[in-house]
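Sequence design from tokenized structure. All designs in this work follow the same two-part layout: the structure record, then the generated sequence. An example of the structure record is given first.
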């Protein structure tokens, strides 16, 4: 007998029929003799609808009330799934994040899980109950409801799997696994049999929405075996583990991309040791995340700085910089919208120099201007115009031969 955590995403519980289908997948694990904890997302597009409902009331909703609102989505699904399981004759119980003992830091909208008090879930499992937990939510030390950031139900599932020392965590979604790139945009995308935690973490952080980045972080830190698979199809999914069976000749494993990127350029900053840190400390204090950063010396006295932010953070970023202009002592501020980030990821890059050059060559041959670059040991990211994003991904997918089936090597 094992302990399995299953997670069903929004599409997989998007209607009563799909909730019944999810209950069948839960039943299959239960019938194998496993203990089962199930984590669910809000039904279909519920979370988006709640966000847009709030926007009809105010353009600046308080983060606390947004958490109160968004947490309701998952609460609908847990109760319905528990009912579907009870209808099948199982003893099932549903819990909100708070009831399930999910304790987070005191941050609204993007809280991290600090601890999970698993006592109640464990005793339910011992009584042979199926425990259904609301994803994406927890509570802080002041009993305030918090949410984990969009897509955060994955993190609830993996964190629960880690805390309960589950044998496995299965993420059921609307694709059959992790692909070389997003199969909704790129026709030739191919499902991977396996991928390492590190590569998956890069892909997730760089925009591959199939898994919440913090879920992968948890999985790596606690060595939780993870599988991404379809809730509709029975075929094997993609296994994410420390050392998956490698495919031969693979330098680039996948391509991630995201739009809504904006570049901010600050010119005329006095050269010196502190200007850079002052700017980024100021932005961080205002909870503004900065991504790719490029600094260049303009002349002996001044330098300029470019960095990217999510487009929806632009207004706040400019406001913060303007507010602190006297102390930051820069000359002017500029910004460019309509950008995207396209990244190639693969652990084989460590031992294969020249991959970045190959990437730039592909962009050049497509006539796509690369505006910014950032690299790590296992990825190269480029900032390009949003209108070229899909074409760039297609060309890179082709150039690095990612559609080609490859034999596994052990
Ligand atoms: P869920 O609601 O089940 O959590 P998500 O929409 O969050 O589902 O994640 C699944 C989606 O992730 C897919 O429909 C797909 O469009 C997208 N996606 C992005 N990159 C990838 C990738 N490399 N492999 C598979 N799916 C991807
Ligand atoms: N319902 C939340 C969202 O749509 C969390 C999740 O689905 O993972 O972002
Ligand atoms: Mg998701």
């Amino acid at each position: 007998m094992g302990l399995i955590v299953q997670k069903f995403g929004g599409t997989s519980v998007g209607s009563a029929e799909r909730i019944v289908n999810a209950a069948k997948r839960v039943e299959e694990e239960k019938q194998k003799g496993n203990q089962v904890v199930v984590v669910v997302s809000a039904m279909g597009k519920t979370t988006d609808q709640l966000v847009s409902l709030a926007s009809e009331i105010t353009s600046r909703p308080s983060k606390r009330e947004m958490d109160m609102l968004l947490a309701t989505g998952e609460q609908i699904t847990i109760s319905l799934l528990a009912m579907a399981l009870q209808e099948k004759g199982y003893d099932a119980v549903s819990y909100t994040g708070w009831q399930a003992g999910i304790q987070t830091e005191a941050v609204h909208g993007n809280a991290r899980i600090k601890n999970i008090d698993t006592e109640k879930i464990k005793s339910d499992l011992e009584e042979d109950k199926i425990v259904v937990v609301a994803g994406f939510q927890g509570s802080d030390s002041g009993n305030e409801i918090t949410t984990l950031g969009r897509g955060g139900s994955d993190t609830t599932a993996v964190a629960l799997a880690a805390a309960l020392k589950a044998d496995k965590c299965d993420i059921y979604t609307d694709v059959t696994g992790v692909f070389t790139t997003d199969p909704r945009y790129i026709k030739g995308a191919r499902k991977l049999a396996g991928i390492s935690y590190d590569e998956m973490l890069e892909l997730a952080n760089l925009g591959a929405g199939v898994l919440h980045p913090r879920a992968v972080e948890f999985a790596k830190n606690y060595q939780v075996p993870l599988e991404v698979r379809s809730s509709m199809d029975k075929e094997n999914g993609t296994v994410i583990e420390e050392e998956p069976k490698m495919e031969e000749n693979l330098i680039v494993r996948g391509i991630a991309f995201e739009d809504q990127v904006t570049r901010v350029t600050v010119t005329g900053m006095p050269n010196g040791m502190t200007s850079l840190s002052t700017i980024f400390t100021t932005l961080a204090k205002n909870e503004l995340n900065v991504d790719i950063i490029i600094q260049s010396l303009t002349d002996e006295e001044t330098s300029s700085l470019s960095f990217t932010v999510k487009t929806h953070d632009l207004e706040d970023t400019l406001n913060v910089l303007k507010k602190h202009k006297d102390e930051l002592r820069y000359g002017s501020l500029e910004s460019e919208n309509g950008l995207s980030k396209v990244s190639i990821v693969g652990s084989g890059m460590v031992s294969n120099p020249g991959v970045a050059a190959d990437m730039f060559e592909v962009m050049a041959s497509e006539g796509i201007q690369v505006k910014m670059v950032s690299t790590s040991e296992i990825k190269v990211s480029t900032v390009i115009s949003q209108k070229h994003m899909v074409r760039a991904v297609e060309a890179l997918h082709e150039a690095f031969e990612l559609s080609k089936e490859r034999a596994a090597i052990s």
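Residues 244-410 form a domain with the VC0802-like fold (CATH 3.30.2130.10). We note this feature because it recurs in several other targets discussed in the main text.
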